[in-house]
Fold:
Amino acid sequence: MFVSCARSTPLLWWMFDTVFQLPPTVYGGQHLVTAVPGDGIGPEMLEHVKSIFKYVQVPVRFEEIRVGHDIDTAECDLVIESIRRNRVALKGNLETHKFREGYFSKNHYIREKLDLFASVTRCHSLNGVPTRHKDVDIVVIRENTEGEYSMLEHQNIPGVVESLKVITRNKCNRIAKFAFDYAKSHGRSKITAIHKANIMKQADGLFLECCREVSKSYPEIAFDSMIVDNTAMQLVSRTDQFDVMLTPNLYGNVIVAMLCGLTGGPGLTPSYNLGHYYKLFETATRNSGKSLTGQNVANPVAYIRAAAEMLKHLELTEHSNLINRAVFKVLAESKVKTADIGGTNTTSEVVDAVMTQLRKELESMSAQKAVHA
Structure:
């Protein structure tokens, strides 16, 4: 189903040694984007994004694909085919039914099949959101396709299960190079590799070795490393020591969840996953919000910001900045907030406040253009 809603830095695709520029799919002046509503609050959040896009005349059409709970890959394969056509996606979380025999993580399946090897999440303090720590600004870059999430498990005999953690030199080098390139292009000055090489000497040892080796090609960026359990303690006590955190798969998932908690909760922070050719935008904490479904109480900010970051990637910078400004002003200057960040308002009321702020922003822009005409 297609839903109609009316170029900043170059579009970069990180290869191991080469940077390519591949344009997103555009038909009739509109960008075609795959939309996966997901489970829980995902479909509600997508509808709010559509309303905002329509209001500010964003030239995006959504190719919407719903994924059910069947134990097969057919619907996921349709999503993958769509993303391969469009090269860009906005996605809600797909619930993994951990107690259903044969069920698998469809989120991981999509990332693996499209080789979306890097997860990038910037967690930072937001004005108007009460938190214990101030001035947090940390980027987590997580390897997305191997490690503990290799999905290679088997039971040798009843009561004895082996779960394989796969670490490869090629993928460690790839994510390390991506992280250093990201730090260089985004004005970041330090990378900390997170590991448990004191115990997993070969697996995490290889990850750490690759990070150190790649760091030698970037003398302008400081590099250090930290054991993952110490990292957890340091995050809650001295967040200011971190700039970019480079992690294997599982540790990155845990650290992002911790940082979202430190900066206001799961309803605020967007994230994206990218590979050589495709980019997928979603919320930073990968849960469906199932317990909040249909209650009109979920915080829509993370999903709206994920959509705004997607527009930046599509080089619709003016639309992206407009939506982000409206969201940040609502958080900082109004009392309209959902309960998770100390407010009493509904999801719809927050979205309405964003739309009101968008109207004010558009009126201000129009007035400024009239003055300079």
